[in-house]
Amino acid sequence: MLKDHAMSNDVITSQLEQLFTGAPKLDPLIDGARDLEEWYSATFQRRVSELAILLSTEIRGELRSEFDSELKTHTEKLRSGWETTTESLKKEIEHLKNRSHSVSLNEGLAEIARVEKHLGEIEKELEHSFTMDSVPLSQLLKLRTTQTDLKAYLRGLKYFVGRATSESSVVDASDPRS
After folding, report:
1. CB–CB of 150/114 below 8 Å?
2. Looking at residues 63-86, what average pLDDT do you find?
3. N or C terminus: fewer CB in 10 A for the chain?
4. Which DSSP state fits 176?
């Protein structure tokens, strides 16, 4: 039995030797499998990088389109807001111009009326003073100087108001709304 067992070990050993001695026949097959695996891996990596580039390009295109759309929307909002503000400011400027002409014209006319009234009072006082002998000469000279100054001031006011009136009529004539 021992002999049988030893003999069976020899058979197994010889079978194993045949199996392993046939191993060099497997080397080209293993090498082919490795080459195929390397080719598959390289092809897979190349295709993955191509897909990554394609996806990147597509995503960039979509983002660019979305960005352009949002930019256009914001630009239109800003433009309409700017146009509204510009129109509002133009109207306000025109209103202020008209108001300043009318205010300065009204103020000028009121000042003319005040100076003419004051000038009239001085002339009455001068006429009254000439009829009286008790009025000192210095007071007469002072009244006469004030009268001369007021007349010069009145001429300047009338020139200013006349010029403001002519400018406002030129502005009114050039205004397309009138």
Report:
1. no
2. 92
3. N
4. T
